[in-house]
TrEMBL record:
<keyword id="KW-0347">Helicase</keyword>
<dbReference type="InterPro" id="IPR011545">
    <property type="entry name" value="DEAD/DEAH_box_helicase_dom"/>
</dbReference>
<dbReference type="InterPro" id="IPR014001">
    <property type="entry name" value="Helicase_ATP-bd"/>
</dbReference>
<dbReference type="InterPro" id="IPR000629">
    <property type="entry name" value="RNA-helicase_DEAD-box_CS"/>
</dbReference>
<dbReference type="InterPro" id="IPR014014">
    <property type="entry name" value="RNA_helicase_DEAD_Q_motif"/>
</dbReference>
<protein>
    <submittedName>
        <fullName>DEAD/DEAH box helicase</fullName>
        <ecNumber>3.6.4.-</ecNumber>
    </submittedName>
</protein>
<keyword id="KW-0378">Hydrolase</keyword>
<keyword id="KW-0067">ATP-binding</keyword>
<comment type="similarity">
    <text>Belongs to the DEAD box helicase family.</text>
</comment>
<feature type="domain" description="DEAD-box RNA helicase Q">
    <location>
        <begin position="26"/>
        <end position="54"/>
    </location>
</feature>
<keyword id="KW-0547">Nucleotide-binding</keyword>
<feature type="compositionally biased region" description="Basic and acidic residues">
    <location>
        <begin position="408"/>
        <end position="451"/>
    </location>
</feature>
<feature type="domain" description="Helicase ATP-binding">
    <location>
        <begin position="57"/>
        <end position="235"/>
    </location>
</feature>
<dbReference type="Pfam" id="PF00271">
    <property type="entry name" value="Helicase_C"/>
</dbReference>
<feature type="region of interest" description="Disordered">
    <location>
        <begin position="401"/>
        <end position="512"/>
    </location>
</feature>
<dbReference type="GO" id="GO:0016787">
    <property type="term" value="F:hydrolase activity"/>
</dbReference>
<feature type="short sequence motif" description="Q motif">
    <location>
        <begin position="26"/>
        <end position="54"/>
    </location>
</feature>
Length: 512
DNA sequence: AAAAAAT
């Protein structure tokens, strides 16, 4: 409910149309929220809180720390931002002076997109209040962010790295922060943000309210919670590893080379107009997206090699319905506010079984039904077994009735050619794509490839290229991030092993 | 074995 619904048409049912039948009907008006906040909620047509909101809002208003187990789409964002706004409102200043607008609430998120979404929600909820909020994240010019920070804001939503950058440059001070939110804390640990988190937390006043949200409860998360939450109230909405019951899951076993065509077939057969396809690799996402476009399906890729502008443009185009297919890496698996999709497709089975749950959590939300389709091949049997073990259910094996594997004559050459990574090939830019007519490479050399890349003569036979070769060269002995290492006595992203040490020298469990 | 994030 806090999350903006995908379909904004008037006929769309609000996320929370049906309050739990056991509970008496609760309204936002029952929480004693300020009229300005209720007005913002009314503006958006929200009346009834989701379960997590109903639980979290009163607890946060009491000033208690919270450990929340909830995924995106449960209304978590409103669950913490509404009471935060309410609490800050009690001492809001209407003065224009920056000094009167110190940062009082800090919300940290693992990914940039999530930060933007949370910020949009906060802004909407606080629109009738004098509270100011802003979002800071990497990949964008610092200047605009700096101006806003220096102007004074009460609520900052940030990804950790860029926030530290601003702190170091004295663009922002966190000495007055009263409330800290760590959203998707498990994800932040996975991504090696712990050292950054520690540095940020060290800059906050000791006396503050802490809210931590996590989709899973690994031992690491529990340690983190113990280290900085004070007698937290545990709020749990749905079991973290439970798959939504309304999601119909089907897996299709196909030849590895056919995955692409099968995905295309599924999109056409089901006439999918809003679907996310997950790929395990950035390059795979780009290629599949390009292939779909060549077959006339409006598609775009989103992953970490895209510029921030491209990522935001793709997301927006998808939300607007300008593109039908968003091919994504796991940048979009969690947190991203793309929900209520009728269908999600796994082009690759995720290496982490848990990610499967997160991926298919994009569909079948709020009582709606959804389909999660996956294609896999022989070599993925193990991954599938892991997934089924985690979700404790067998997934239906689907039959591809009507799918005609392409018997390619010379056509196969085109297929292979466009699939192979080209030397010097870059991830395609979002902008030029729409203007580019579908192209075929009927065996001819791509015009833009410089001939000297391969020297004179026929193209060398290309063996199966490992995409990692296409990464920029990094000397193995480069003294990477040494400064950061000395600073925190912790290197970069070495999550699991270092966590115990960071959390205060807990005795290591005796195991190898 | 990959991806995400500060540059």
């Amino acid at each position: 409910m806090s999350e903006t619904p995908m379909n904004n048409d008037a006929a769309a049912v609000p996320d929370v149309a049906t309050p739990s039948p056991i509970e008496p009907t609760v309204c936002f008006a029952d929480f004693g929220l300020a009229p300005e906040i209720l007005r913002a909620l009314t503006d958006q047509g929200y009346v009834h809180p989701t379960p997590i909101q109903a639980q979290a809002i009163p607890v946060v208003l009491q000033g208690r720390d919270v450990m929340g187990a909830a995924q995106t789409g449960t209304g978590k964002t409103a669950g913490f931002s509404l009471p935060i706004i309410q609490l800050l409102l009690a001492h809001a200043s209407s003065s224009m002076s920056p000094a009167r607008h110190p940062v009082r609430a800090l919300i940290l998120t693992p990914t940039r997109e999530l930060a933007v979404q949370v910020a949009e929600n906060v802004k909407a909820y606080a629109q009738h209040t004098p509270l100011r909020s802003t979002v800071v994240f990497g990949g964008m010019d610092m200047k605009g962010q700096t101006v806003i920070l220096k102007g004074g804001v009460e609520i900052v939503i940030a990804t950790p790295g860029r926030l530290l950058d601003h702190i170091e440059q004295k663009n922002v001070s966190l000495g007055q922060v009263q409330m800290l939110v760590m959203d998707e804390a498990d994800r932040m640990l996975d991504m090696g943000f712990l050292p950054d988190l520690q540095r940020i937390i060290n800059l906050l006043p000791k006396k503050r309210q802490n809210l931590m949200f996590s989709a899973t409860f690994s031992p690491e998360i529990k340690k983190l919670a113990n280290s900085f939450l004070q007698q937290p109230v545990l709020i749990e909405v749905a079991r973290s590893n439970a798959t939504a019951e309304k999601v119909t899951q089907i897996v299709y076993k196909v030849d590895e080379e056919q995955k692409r065509d099968v995905v295309e077939f599924l999109i056409r057969q089901r006439e999918l107009k809003q679907v996310i396809i997950f790929s395990n690799t950035k390059i795979g996402a780009s290629r599949l997206s390009r292939h779909l476009e060549q077959t006339g399906i409006k598609a775009s890729a989103i992953h970490g090699d895209k510029t921030q502008q491209e990522r935001m443009a793709a997301l927006e185009a998808f939300k607007q319905g300008e593109i039908e297919v968003l091919v994504a890496t796991d940048v979009a698996a969690r947190g991203l506010d793309i929900s209520d999709l009728p269908c999600v497709i796994n082009y690759d089975l995720p290496y982490n079984a848990e990610d499967y749950v997160h991926r298919i959590g994009r569909t079948g939300r709020a009582g709606a039904s959804g389909d999660a389709l996956s294609v896999y091949s022989d070599k993925d049997e193990r991954l599938l077994a892991d997934i089924e073990k985690l979700i404790k259910q067998d997934i239906t094996r689907g039959e591809l009735t009507g799918f005609a594997p392409r018997t390619r004559g010379r056509d196969s050459e085109r297929g292979e050619r466009s699939e192979r990574p080209q030397r010097g090939e870059r991830v395609e830019r979002g902008g030029e794509r729409s203007e580019r007519p579908p192209r075929r490479f009927e065996g001819e050399a791509r015009p833009e490839r410089p001939a000297r890349s391969y020297g004179a003569g026929p193209l060398p036979r290309r063996e199966k290229v490992d995409p990692w070769f296409l990464k920029p060269y990094e000397p193995a002995n480069a003294p990477r991030r040494e400064a950061a290492a000395t600073d925190t006595s912790n290197g970069p992203a070495k999550p699991k092993q270092k966590i115990a040490a960071l959390l205060g020298g807990l005795p290591k469990p005796a195991q190898s």
